Automatic annotation (TrEMBL):
Residues 6-207, 237-439 form the dTDP-4-dehydro-6-deoxy-alpha-D-glucopyranose 2,3-dehydratase domain. This is NDP-hexose 2,3-dehydratase. One of its GO terms (molecular function) is lyase activity. It holds the Pfam family Hexose_dehydrat. It comes from the Bacteria.
Length: 451
């Protein structure tokens, strides 16, 4: 445990120096262990495990485009994203890992205690065992306090879910070279540092208020509707009814099709890309690393065309800060819609579209951000599957002049209400969960109270 963050930064720099990594982009046909099906063009591993890249045909009545085709990651395995926590002298500490992922812009970031696909922790790669796995598979030590299946990026994964699990321990836990204990206050401060807390940590941390009172002290900061400042605009029952109504109202149909036949995508030398350079490309990488379960491997990855924008518009309602939640449909969404940020997009994918076809509230988010910014930080997305994928995460106060009347697939709710839905799994999408984890530091909560 570190007395201050300067000690942490010195430790983190030391982990960078003591391990070596090399990531090299390669042609998709130069990845040992991977190959393309001669009939369909689908990309898969020779073991039949890990994941595959396939083609997907989508039709929906709930997006700017009603029909499209795209490459998508198919990974039916349920992985483990696990965090060991411990309470010492009234403070909650998390066991974090300095972990390299080939897609991270800065390679090394802080991950949960365990971040592993089923293929990895069952030894398909024939590499080293995953440290601390025994805390997250039965029979286990410790007390399970959060355990939910949560979705991954629906734009790039088909029906992908991971088990987000938090286990509280009381006994001493041996700390490996690449692991450290950090308090929740320290993590909250590090959350404001670009590209340091990885996506898997952020999604697990979005549920930690159910473990650690100091992370979710809404009453202490005036965010809890029980503290006398007012009532939420909608009750929990009304929010559940709204969400069920939206699920019932919209449609989402998907069909897996040969990767080689999807349009408007093309096979360029060594990669697959959109003919108008939109959205993302499928690329290959070769990796060497000294502190992973295997020291060398190749794999395909998705590379977005540019940095995305993910943000909540918010405003004060009845004395409480509310955020505008979107019931969003994506190509790979497990159950038609999930609760998502107000805006989620890669702006470069819309530059050739008329302004009417841009995501709703995009302009309002950026305008409000000029004066009412509560959160503004760049974070990486899942570095194990996405190459240099970053999003600018925003939470902004649009002011009480922003109207309460919103389209039927949007709804106002408090931060606390959205956090409550995280508990159940497959309600709140990964972008919204990551934003919730950015909202927990004391500085931001103080700003929310003063709005």
């Amino acid at each position: 445990m570190f007395d201050d963050l300067q000690d942490f930064y010195e430790w983190f720099a030391q982990r960078n120096m003591e391990n070596s990594y090399e990531i090299k982009k390669v042609s998709l046909d130069e990845m040992p262990g991977w190959g393309s099906d001669p009939r369909t063009g689908d990309i898969s591993h020779e073991s039949g495990k890990f994941f595959s890249i396939r083609g997907l045909r989508v039709s929906t009545d709930h997006r700017e485009t009603a029909r499209w085709e795209q490459p998508i990651i198919v990974q039916p395995e349920i992985g483990i994203l696990g965090m060991i926590v411990k309470v010492v002298n009234g403070r909650t500490y998390c066991l974090m890992q300095a972990k390299m992922e080939p897609g991270n812009v800065n390679l090394l970031q802080l991950s949960p205690t365990v971040q592993a696909t089923r293929s990895n922790y069952t030894g398909v790669h024939q590499g080293n065992k995953v440290p601390y796995l025994e805390y997250f598979v039965a029979p286990r030590s410790g007390r399970v306090v959060v355990d939910a299946l949560q979705s991954e990026q629906g734009s790039w994964f088909l029906n992908k879910r991971n088990r987000n699990i938090i286990v509280e321990v009381h006994d001493d836990v041996p700390v490996g070279d690449d692991f450290c204990w950090l308090s929740l206050d320290q993590i909250a401060e590090l959350m404001r540092v670009p590209n340091l807390i990885n996506m898997d940590s952020r999604t697990v941390l979005s549920g930690i208020s159910f473990v650690a009172p100091e992370w979710g002290e809404w009453a202490e900061t005036g965010l809890d509707h029980g503290c006398g400042l007012g009532e939420p605009l909608h009750s929990k029952e009304q929010l559940l009814s709204w969400f069920t109504e939206v699920k019932s109202q919209y449609s989402l149909e998907r069909e897996l099709v040969p990767l080689s036949e999807i349009t408007p995508w093309r096979n360029s030398p060594g990669r697959i890309e959109h003919v108008e350079s939109r959205h993302f490309s499928v690329v290959g990488v070769h990796v060497t690393a000294t502190n992973r379960e295997v020291s060398e491997w190749s794999q395909p990855m998705l590379e977005p065309v540019e940095r995305g924008v993910v943000g909540f518009l918010g405003r004060n309602i009845n004395g409480l800060f509310h955020i505008l939640v979107h019931a969003r449909t994506e190509a790979g969404t497990y159950d038609i819609v999930e609760m998502a940020p107000t805006v989620s997009c890669i702006p470069g994918s819309y530059t050739r579209s008329s302004r009417e076809r841009w995501p709703r509230y995009f302009d309002e988010l950026l305008r409000a951000g000029e004066n009412g910014t509560l959160v503004d930080v760049v974070h990486s997305e899942e570095g194990g599957r996405f190459y240099h994928a970053e999003n600018r995460y925003l939470v902004v106060d649009a002011g009480e002049g922003f109207g309460l009347d919103v389209p039927e697939d949007y709804c106002w709710m408090t931060v606390e209400q959205l956090m409550e839905f995280v508990r159940y799994g497959n309600h709140v999408n990964v972008a919204a969960r990551c934003l919730l984890s950015c909202l927990v530091d004391r500085t931001t909560r103080k700003q929310l109270v003063e709005i």
